[in-house]
Write a structure and sequence with these properties.
Organism: Pseudoalteromonas luteoviolacea DSM 6061
Keywords: Cytoplasm, DNA damage, DNA repair, DNA replication, DNA-directed DNA polymerase, Nucleotidyltransferase, Transferase
InterPro entries: DNA_pol3_alpha_NTPase_dom (IPR011708), DNA_pol3_finger (IPR040982), DnaE2 (IPR023073), DnaE2/DnaE/PolC (IPR004805), DNAPol_HHH (IPR029460), NA-bd_OB_tRNA (IPR004365), PHP_dom (IPR004013), Pol/His_phosphatase_N (IPR003141)
Enzyme class: transferase
Shape: globular
Largest sheet: 7 strands, mixed
CATH architecture of one domain: Alpha-Beta Barrel
Strand order of the largest sheet: 1-2-3-4-5-6-7
Strand content: 5-15%
Helix content: 40-55%
Mean pLDDT: 87
Number of strands: 23
Function: DNA polymerase involved in damage-induced mutagenesis and translesion synthesis (TLS). It is not the major replicative DNA polymerase.
CATH superfamily of one domain: Metal-dependent hydrolases
CATH class of one domain: Alpha Beta
Length: 1022
């Protein structure tokens, strides 16, 4: 017996389906089904996952595309026999989704009337309306409609089947068997019930009437199907499946063509633009090797028919350039010489030699990879330009699948099981997910969950099951799909939560699986900061700068000396604790060193044990050896150690004999091996391939371990090359124009690794004067000014928490030429009391008040508001006590998040509240392995996956930042201080390696009570 399941919902029918598309396919294959239709409700979001599994594992089962749709009291499953039906279904889903807000849909009768190609499986509801719908369907869609009979084996089952048979005879519609599958195995019933409760926002025992009566909506064996359905019904399902020939691989992307001038081909126009760009980029003439590379790239673009893609990117970046929006392209194709000539990237090809095979892979038939980062504060202008140019029908963002993670799983499952919200939040707050030696289940039991109770067991099992399940679709950060014709011919489109945004129902991985191109329009805060810094430099020095100008000037040794000292607070990519620890060891001295630096401080190289060999070889402590010339060609520029993702893939090809297609599968497996374990299936082939080609088995094992180490964290050289440009540009600006650079950074927050407070601490260490917020001198933004014949930074109103930007603009625009003389002047200009109170809290009224308390007295003074005294300067008779330094400090942080007065550690030390301790600037004089006590404000906690349970704390004292290493056992034994301290005393051991200094924590002491009310926020576990 052959059987095709034509009605099956995956977990992309959000909070309905209880199994992943891949699980459903595998189960259908196991049961010997000939075909499986994935028919999620008004969605095609799950079909690509099923398609990719079948294709990659060459399973002998046909995938059929379809969707469940509901209209009033009609339920139908639409099935796609061919491409025309598929486009029709995409249109219907798009129209229904676009009529409604995100997450819902509104079908209209016209949508059903317009169907000309889709097969219709009608699912009678058993209500009186069935007669009307039977007549309607037989009238308009007679030749393409079936009655789908389900066997749910509940108390209505026999009556329902009889009713369906009557409808079939009455309207002459054939019957087919369908399962209405919601789960691949009956063991998922409990999860399905829980999903139903979550969808109703209630506990399971409150939604009993909505729950499945049994597990009959699980996938069934053919033996069971034969017992439940008449043979003719099963045969009809098989006949329908045989008539379905559409495959997702038949989708063909077509580029928009309006970018090409009349009378030219796309390739001719691209060559013209590259020719113009060559003259712009290479003012002193084009080196012969560069010219040859350009021609090679252009020929490949033409051969693989990608000119429209490059023209589309070019058009977008030229729009950004015309609006003064800073941008930088990255990705393997972005770092080509063609993209340099088209001004898509500022990466100078004379400074880096990215593997040509990664430009566009002809052998792997991969589309080109180009991401373009734009200023994060102005990217919306670029997005709206794309929508305006191509219209909503031809342009939409890719989706991002929001999945259940630990916190959301605990909250939703807990609520569905009736666990108190307060208890769930207590669990979430006190579980340390970075403790890899004590899993979250054990920690929750320690926190009070009863492990032997039915509810406790269900809670743990269901949280484990639901983690990774899709919760809803969101919009991708900037991946656009732009087509020549209506996009809904290719994929369904729906509304995003954000106004003026539409998204397709597939995410970036789905698009990649189908080899459909997207244009990544991404946001990067550092580009905003660099552009603002360029503007400030031009404003104050009349010097015009661009990123390309900085790269053309080649490497500046003074800038690299600053980088080698890890003086990189605020600098792009090399500002983290881990990067700062590596900089004095790797000592980057040129652009390509920065490329390596950015890529090597990543989980991939660290887990693959590549960092120490690289450093030893770079320092001449270890010989550089290559087992073959082929391996040398791949690894020579990184001293024989694979640092980049491209090198790992190339090694598999040259050392193990992988084909291009196999190498592409390896890359995909690397990207998801922790989730699926797919990488292990390549182990035997890799080891066997290398040993057959004469490589030592030890070398082969090491290469495989390094590939495993890369996991999903392997960093492409092409991305690192683009990031290195911005790292150098930001370092150059910090070295030569620190006041302009930090002002730009502060005006670009939130972004980057550091808070305004930490940036200002670094500003002061660079002897840049910082002037306070002042109602008579500040503007909304921070700005650069001259102070005592030096560049200084005047802080702006934007730092004041809760201050309305329009009110700040009013303060500035109405400010008298001689400045405000008293509070009443501000009131007379329409500044409301709440704004005045915020100004007083921020000590921004100090030009006419002695302190915050005095300013508040003036605000409360009602006499000055009387008509008799209007315009008069009244003498203040109240004698207020001035705030002490601690009160000032607390209010500085409360009102603005920063202080320009003494550092908290300085104040506490001067007040005698701190026991003896060592400051950051004194650690260098301590001997290796000596005992030490340090104290600081906690500004960061990092627990990377590579660190085997280790957490890296950053403590800020009044001389700088201290790096503290906390082992898992220490964290577990002193959990309260580890998780909650704002001010931390650490007793530990100094470890020194060259210029790199750490403190290995032994005892953690929470000193936060010394700063009651202190509102510093640390950057935790990023």
């Amino acid at each position: 017996m052959q059987y095709a399941e034509l009605f099956c919902q995956s977990n992309f029918s959000f909070l309905q389906g209880a199994s992943r598309p891949e699980e459903l396919v595998r189960q259908a294959q196991f049961f010997g089904y000939s075909a499986l239709a994935i028919t999620d409700e008004c969605s095609l979001a799950g079909v690509v996952r099923a398609h990719s599994l079948i294709k990659n594992e060459q399973l002998g089962i046909k995938l059929i595309i379809g969707s469940l749709l509901r209209f009033e009291d009609l339920e139908v499953v639409l099935i796609c026999p061919d491409k025309a039906a598929y486009s029709e279904l995409c249109r219907v889903i798009s129209n229904a989704r676009r009529r409604s807000s995100k997450g819902s849909y509104t079908l209209e009768k016209w949508d059903l009337m317009s169907l000309r190609h889709c097969f219709i499986i009608w699912l009678p509801t058993g209500n009186k309306a069935d007669d009307n719908w039977g007549e309607w369907l037989s009238r308009y869609h007679y030749a393409r409609t079936w009655v789908g009979i389900q066997r749910r084996l509940d108390n209505q089952d026999k009556r329902y089947v009889a009713r369906c048979e009557v409808l079939s005879k009455q309207w002459h519609l054939p019957i087919c068997a369908v399962g209405g599958v919601l789960m691949h195995t009956p063991t998922r019933l409990r999860l399905q019930h829980t999903l139903t409760a979550i969808s109703h926002n209630q506990a399971v025992d409150q939604v009993k009437s909505h729950l499945l009566a049994n597990s009959e909506r699980a996938m069934r064996s053919k033996v069971k199907l034969e017992k439940l359905f008449q043979p003719s019904w099963l045969e009809e399902s098989q006949r329908i499946a045989k008539r379905c020939s559409f495959d997702l691989d038949k989708l063909r992307y077509q580029y928009p063509s309006e970018l090409v001038p009349a009378g030219q081909t796309a390739m001719q126009h691209l060559r013209t633009l590259v020719e113009q760009g060559k003259r712009l980029r290479f003012l002193d003439g084009i080196p012969k090797d560069i010219e040859e590379t350009i021609e090679k790239e252009l020929n490949l673009i033409e051969e693989l028919d990608y000119p429209y893609f490059f023209l589309t990117i070019y058009d977008i970046v030229m729009f950004a350039k015309s609006r003064g929006i800073l941008y930088q392209g990255r990705g393997s194709a972005a770092n080509s010489v063609v993209c340099y000539c088209l001004e898509i990237t500022a990466v100078d090809p004379r400074q880096v030699a990215v593997l040509f095979e990664r430009f566009i892979s002809k052998e792997r038939n991969e589309p080109p990879d180009i991401d373009v980062d734009f200023e994060h504060q102005r990217r919306e202008e670029v997005i709206q330009y794309i929508y305006q140019k191509y219209g909503r029908k031809r342009a939409a963002l890719a989706a991002t699948v929001i999945t259940y993670r630990f916190k959301s799983a605990v909250r939703d499952i807990g609520k569905a099981l009736g666990i108190a919200q307060s208890q769930l939040e207590y669990f979430i707050k006190n579980v340390n997910r970075r403790d890899r030696s004590l899993n979250w289940q054990a920690q929750i039991i320690e926190l009070g969950l009863e492990p032997d109770s039915m509810k406790g067991q269900q809670f743990i099992e269901l949280v484990n099951e639901i983690m990774g399940f899709p919760r809803h679709l969101s919009q991708h950060v900037g991946g656009f799909v732009i087509s020549a014709g209506p996009l809904h011919d290719l994929v369904p489109v729906e509304n995003a939560a954000m106004a003026e945004r539409t998204v397709i129902q597939w995410d970036k991985d789905d698009l990649e699986s189908l080899k459909l191109l997207k244009v990544d329009v991404l946001a990067l805060g550092m580009l905003t900061a660099i552009r603002k810094a360029f503007d400030l430099v031009k404003q104050h020095t009349d010097r015009q700068l661009s990123i390309a100008d900085l790269t053309k000037m080649q490497d500046d040794p003074d800038v690299y000396k600053m980088i080698q000292k890890a003086d990189t607070v605020g600098v792009f990519q090399i500002e983290s604790r881990a990067q700062m620890s590596m900089l004095p060891r790797l000592k980057p001295a040129c652009y390509y060193d920065l490329v390596v630096q950015i890529a090597i401080v990543r989980p991939g190289p660290i887990q693959g044990d590549m960092v120490h060999p690289f450093l030893k070889r770079r320092n001449g402590e270890e010989a550089i050896e290559y087992p073959s010339d082929a391996v040398k060609a791949v690894l020579e520029r990184t001293l024989g150690v694979p640092i980049f993702q491209e090198q790992v893939i190339k090694l598999a090809m040259v050392a193990a004999g992988f084909s291009g297609g196999e190498a592409d599968q390896l890359r995909r497996a690397m990207a998801s091996w922790k989730k699926t374990g797919e990488l292990m299936q390549f182990k035997d082939k890799l080891l066997k391939g290398m040993t057959e080609r004469g490589y030592d088995s030890v070398f082969a094992e090491r290469i495989f371990e390094q590939i495993c180490g890369f996991g999903e964290y392997g960093f492409p050289e092409s991305h690192s090359a683009s990031f290195a440009v911005l790292a150098y540009a930001s370092s150059w600006l910090k070295y030569y124009y620190p006041a302009m650079f930090f002002t730009a950074l502060l005006n670009s927050l939130p972004m980057g690794f550091y808070s305004a407070s930490q940036l200002l601490q670094d500003v002061k260490r660079h002897q840049v004067v910082v002037l306070p917020i002042c109602v008579n001198h500040s503007e909304y933004e921070h700005f650069v000014c001259r102070y005592q014949n030096k560049w200084a930074i005047r802080l702006g109103f934007r730092l004041i928490k809760g201050l309305n930007q329009n009110m700040a603009a009013q303060i500035v625009s109405q400010r008298p030429s001689q400045g405000y003389q008293r509070v009443q002047c501000l009131s007379d200009n329409g500044i409301d009391k709440s704004t005045l109170e915020r100004l007083a809290s921020a000590n921004a009224l100090q030009s006419f008040s002695a302190d915050r308390y005095s300013a508040r007295w003036q605000i409360m003074d009602s006499e000055a508001k009387l008509p008799l005294f209007k315009g008069e300067q009244l003498v203040q008779t109240q004698h207020t006590q001035s705030p002490d330094v601690f009160a000032d400090l607390i209010e500085d942080y409360t009102a603005t998040g920063v202080t320009l007065n003494k550092h908290p550690i300085t104040l506490l030390d001067e007040a005698g509240l701190l026991e003896p301790f060592t400051r950051m600037n004194e650690l260098a004089s301590k001997t290796h392995k000596s005992l030490v006590t340090v104290v600081g404000v906690v500004t960061g906690r990092q627990a990377p996956g590579t660190a085997a349970g280790v957490t890296f704390f950053t403590l800020e004292d009044d001389t700088g930042n201290i790096n503290v290493v906390v082992w898992a056992g220490t964290a577990r034994a002193q959990k309260q201080a580890y998780l909650g301290a704002k001010l931390l005393r650490v007793k530990g051991i100094v470890e020194k390696e060259g210029e790199v200094i750490h403190v290995i924590a032994g005892r953690l002491i929470d000193e936060s009570e010394l700063l009651q009310g202190f509102n510093n926020k640390s950057r935790n576990f990023h």
